[in-house]
């Protein structure tokens, strides 16, 4: 596996030697979370170029970075060239295990690209294009305190969607039940993140898709969170559903007490009773 220095050298030397590449920025976890580097971290690189169409259309050009296992071009799949809006991304996994997420952006698009990800560092600036650009610190990724409305909406949508999970289980509709549980998980994860933020003065980040949750939850809460992930067994889905209810209730009530928000105890009680009632129904029952 090539070292970090070797990877950075090829990124920078390639840019220095190509007159069409005028500036280079790095963002992503190597900038926002440099103390937790490992072999799986991507190199998130932006090349600002004055010949955008060449780099967006000549896909073999990136072979210079090494032999690949696989390449993904998200924009290529979704848009025509005329719709790229001056931004094109190559996601490359190399045979040595390294990965580069390389974005080509037109010089005219600098402000939009920087605004899209304010955490970054300038690696190269041939023309002073990035002078005056102030990258933000990692605090832009910190969990935000929920507004009263956001909290109330989360509670409402969480408890409402659970009836669909129960229905899917009872009908033996596995994909439907799991997907509905995953919709509920969006609100569960939001409450877990708010709880963590509350406990740390909203000066921490749980990372993309909550990947750092385990760092901030105590053992009991983490074990309960893990139990919200079911197998494909219907009885196991019921258990995960009730674990999600327990965890949501536990954390959301603490948040509501802290910020003097209203937790929907009535909805919680009635929906919990309904879920247990549906679980106890015999299979193939016509009437509830």
From TrEMBL:
<dbReference type="Pfam" id="PF04439">
    <property type="entry name" value="Adenyl_transf"/>
</dbReference>
<dbReference type="InterPro" id="IPR043519">
    <property type="entry name" value="NT_sf"/>
</dbReference>
<protein>
    <recommendedName>
        <fullName>Aminoglycoside adenylyltransferase</fullName>
    </recommendedName>
</protein>
<dbReference type="InterPro" id="IPR007530">
    <property type="entry name" value="Aminoglycoside_adenylylTfrase"/>
</dbReference>
């Amino acid at each position: 596996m090539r070292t970090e220095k070797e990877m950075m050298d090829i990124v920078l030397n390639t840019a220095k030697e190509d007159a069409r590449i005028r500036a280079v920025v790095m963002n992503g976890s190597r900038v926002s979370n440099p103390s937790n580097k490992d072999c799986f971290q991507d190199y998130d690189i932006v090349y600002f170029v004055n010949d955008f169409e060449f780099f967006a259309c000549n896909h073999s050009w990136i072979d210079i970075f090494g032999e690949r296992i696989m390449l993904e071009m998200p924009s290529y799949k979704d848009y025509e060239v005329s719709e790229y809006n001056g931004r094109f991304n190559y996601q490359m996994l190399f045979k040595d295990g390294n990965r580069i997420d390389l974005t080509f952006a037109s010089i005219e698009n600098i402000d939009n690209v920087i605004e899209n990800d304010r955490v970054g560092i300038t690696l190269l600036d041939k023309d002073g294009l990035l002078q005056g650009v102030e990258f933000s610190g990692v605090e832009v990724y910190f969990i935000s305190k929920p507004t009263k409305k956001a909290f109330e909406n989360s509670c409402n949508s969480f408890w409402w969607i659970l009836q669909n999970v129960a229905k899917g289980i009872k009908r033996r509709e596995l994909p439907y039940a799991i997907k509905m549980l995953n919709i509920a998980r969006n609100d569960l994860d939001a409450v877990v993140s708010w709880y963590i933020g509350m406990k740390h003065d909203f000066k921490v980040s749980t990372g993309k898709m909550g990947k750092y949750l385990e760092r901030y939850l105590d053992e009991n809460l983490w074990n309960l969170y893990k139990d919200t992930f079911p197998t494909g067994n219907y009885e196991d889905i019921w258990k995960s559903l009730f674990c999600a209810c327990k965890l949501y209730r536990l954390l959301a009530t603490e948040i509501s007490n802290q910020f003097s928000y209203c937790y929907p105890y009535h909805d919680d009680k009635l929906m919990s009773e309904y879920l247990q009632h549906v679980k106890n129904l015999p299979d193939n029952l016509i009437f509830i």
